[in-house]
Structures are given as structure tokens and as C-alpha cells.
Amino acid sequence: MTLTRNEARTVVNLFRRTTNEAMSSYLFGGLLPVKPCQALKDALAGLTLASMNIPQVLGYTRIAGTPVVTGLYTVLLPLIAFAIFGSSRHLVVSADSATAAIFSSSLSRMAPLASEKYMALVGMVALLTSGLLLIARVLKLGYLADFLSRTVLVGFLTGVGIQVGVAMLGDMLGINVASHRTPEQLWEIARAVPSISAQIAGLSTCVVAIIILGRRFAPRFPVSLVVVIGMIATSAWLHLAERGFAVIGPVSGGLPSLKWPDVEWREALDLLPIATSCFIMIIAQSAATSRVYAAIFKERVDENADILGISAANAAAALSGTFVVNGSPTQTAMASEAGARSQVAQLAFAAVALVVLLFLTGPLQYLPHCVLASIVFTIAVGMVDVRSLGDIRRKSRSAFHRCRCAGNWRRAGDSARNCAFARATRAPQLPTAHGHLGAGHDRPVGAGAGDARIANRARTHRLPLRRGPVLRQRRPLRRRGARSCRHSARTGSMVCPGC
Question: Is 332 helix (H, G, I), strand (E, B) or coil?
Fold first, then answer.
């Protein structure tokens, strides 16, 4: 059988289109399709993101108890792995303060900080977390993200903003804060007010003002990049470290060496609860962040693909000698405000990290801590959506209570997180008769046969569908040909099985 030229061209185009659709469905979901003009903008956003986040990931190593260079490793291979296997075009997978605090508080009792044994345990925690995420992907547990309504998401990001903003105040004012809990940090800052350094506080105020004014009058100009470069040059020229300004200090360079964590089987079993805590934090935090930005830009996101991407990122982190990575709300907000619209920005970020590891670890040591803290503080303030909080409070006090519970979950200690998260997500899950979640302004769900089964199951087990008279507000949705009766009107089902 001989094909003509047009028929052969049609077959080739069809094969190419099918291959691209398959690749975009399973791999490179956060990259494809790539538009040259937008890719250039994303690359510039990646440079800006690197200028703000490289010093930040170095700071996370202080929480994790690992060498400073491991912070750069978290934005090298893990970013590339998530760009290949992930689905979200906006989620930035990197070091995170929450997961760092979870494993460092437990591993510090098993080995000295930053020792070879400690780094092996840190790598095994990342590897176990990757395995748990892979199991979640096989079981398709991405639907757990459906338990996060709009009120929970707003409260979640508000809690993140408050936590990060308060954590940055100590460095901005020149105060040493030892606690990792927000109320205790505020108390330590209040006690140390008389010892605040005027010059450090003044420099921090100037940096915050410059960044805010730059975003107001020149939103596309990389103000933070200019501030970072200018402050590194100024610090090196004026020797700010000798004038009372704390700087990052020497950073060792070089590429990471790939190796398997040297941990015994019994020790790996002891690390499993720590990895489970990191797994729960990653599922909740990454799903909430990716869903928020997918809603902002009106895009679809595959939570199961994101779980696989974060699993691959943590496997890469474990083999490259660094700690657990997570979908970071702070860094995702930085990337979005810098203009990133795909994972091209994160690949550019990884390329910059590679260049820094090879050639630029020397100048980075002059960056003052107060400048870094001021940049992160401006991002944290922008994550507190006061307008949405006010709208939620005016529409429903119960929804505002769930929003507050979500914020408290993000800022609470380990023992209170699960309880607060359950309170935040429990009420709005069962759909009402008109096909919405419990609060009228929560994220809608599709009405159909699934709603009927849930409503009938709730009636069978005597579960409340909704607090208040929501079922009487609208007539229940019915499929064509469905019968109506007083039972179906009361239970909200499409077809009453008892009639």
C-alpha cells in the first residue's frame, strides 16, 4: 500500500499531535505548550525569582540544621524533576520552613546537627517521603485536595503570610529570635524592643519601601533583583559585616554528589513517622497552593500528577544530599509576582542555582540578613488577602470560622495541626441539594448522580447535609425522567430509592 504525499503528511501531523497530547498529559504538564515570547518572560521571571529565593533557601538550612550549601541543592535537581513530572505551571517546589522544622526537631535527638550521620538521616527522610507520595499517586489520592474549599484556601495562605512575616521581623530589626512558634516569636520581639538596632531597622524599612513603591509604579521592573545586587555590592564595598550588620557568610560551592543515604533498616523504620508528618504537610500545602494559582489564572491542575512530581523532587533531593522539599506558597507567590506563567521560570531558577554553585558563591556571602528578610516580608504581606477575608466574614460567620481554623492549622504546632485542619474541612464537604458545598460561596461541585448517592448515604447514616435551612432555599436538581416525591425533596436526592 502506497501513500501519497498529502496522506503521508496527514499521518505525520496526526502522530505528532497525538504524541504532544500524550506527553503533555503525563510529562511536562507544567511546561507544554511552550510559546517563545512567553518563555522569554518566564526566563526573566526565573532570574528575578533566583535573586530573591537563593538567599532564602540558604536561610532555611538554619532551620533544617544542615550545611548552607544544601539550600542551593534544593533548587537544582528537585526543580528539574518537578518540571518533568508535575502538572502545575506555577507551583515552586523547594525548601520549606514547615517541613524543615518537622524533621529537624526529631532528628536533632538522633545525631549532631550537620554531621555526616545527620545528613544520612535527612536524606532517608526525604526518600521515605518520596515513597509515601508515590504510593499516594498510585492510589490516586489527589482527590484529597477536593476537601479544600475557597474559605480554607484563603485562610491557609493568610496563615502562611502571618507566619512568614512574623518570622522575618527578627532579622529585620536585628533581634535574635530562637523560637519557631509565632506567638513566642512575637513575645521575644516585644521583650527585645529596647535593643533594636536603629541602622538595621532603617535599612530594612528602606528596602521594604523601595520594593513596595517599585511594585506600585513599575510592576514589571525587577526591583528585588536590583536591590539584591546593589546591597551585595554595597556590603562588600563598605564592609557592612564590620559595622554590625549580620551577613550570610561563606558558602561552599560545587555540584552535589549523588549517593544513597547510608541508614540501617531499623533506623529507617524509626524515621517513618517523621516522613509521614512531612507527607501530610506536603499534600495539604502543595495542593492548596497549586489550586489557588490555578484558580487565579483559570487553568486546570492535575493533583495526582503534582503528587508524582513532588515525589520525584524528593527522590532527587535525597540522592543529591539535601532535605525534604515541598510546594512553597511563599516562593510560588514570588514567581507569580515576577511574571512566571510556566515551569520554564523554575528551570531558569535551577540554571541560576547551577551557575551560583559553580562560580558565584563568593559574592553571595556579603548579602545582609536584614535585606533578605525585608524582601520575604513584602511577599508575606501580599499573601494576606484582607478583602477576601472581609467578604467571607460578611457573607457567613461559619465560613469565616473555617477560614480562621485553616490559618491556625498553618501556624499551629505539630499536635494541633490535624485537629484544626479537620475542623476547617469537615463542614463544607457534603454537597447540598443545589450542588454546592456547605457555604454558599465555597468552591462549587458538579451536581449529578454522585450527589444523589452522597445525599442518600448521609440520610442512611443520619449525617447532616448542611447546618441551617439551605435545603429549602432552592429546588433540588433533577435528571430528566427522575421522579419527585417528598422524600427526595427532603433528602436532596435525584431519585428516591424508597418510592
Answer: helix
For 186-221, the pLDDT digits (tens) are: 898 888 888 888 999 999 999 999 988 987 888 767
Ramachandran region, residue 485 (left: φ > 0; alpha: ψ -120 to 50; beta: rest)? beta
- Which residue spans within 259-405 are E strands per DSSP? 326-327
Peptide bond into 469 cis (omega under 30): no
Domain with 470, as residue range(s), is 430-499
Q: Is residue 193 part of a domain?
A: yes
Q: Please count the structural domains in the chain.
A: 2
**Assessment of whether the complete model's pTM goes beyond 0.70:** no
3-class SS at 368?
Answer: strand
Place of cell 546593589: 230
Residue with cell 554531621: 115
- Residues found in the chain: 499
Query: Can you tell me the distance from the alpha carbon of 362 to that of 364, in angstroms, rounded to the nearest whole number?
Result: 5
- Angstrom CA distances, 424 to 14, 62, 153, 410, stand at 48, 31, 10, 11
Beta carbons of 352 and 50 less than 8 angstroms apart: yes
Tell me whether residue 167 is in a domain.
yes
Q: Under a CB-based contact definition with an 8 Å cutoff, are residues 328 and 74 in contact?
A: no
Residue 126 grid coordinates: 526525604
Nearest residue to 189 via CA among 218, 214, 160, 166: 166
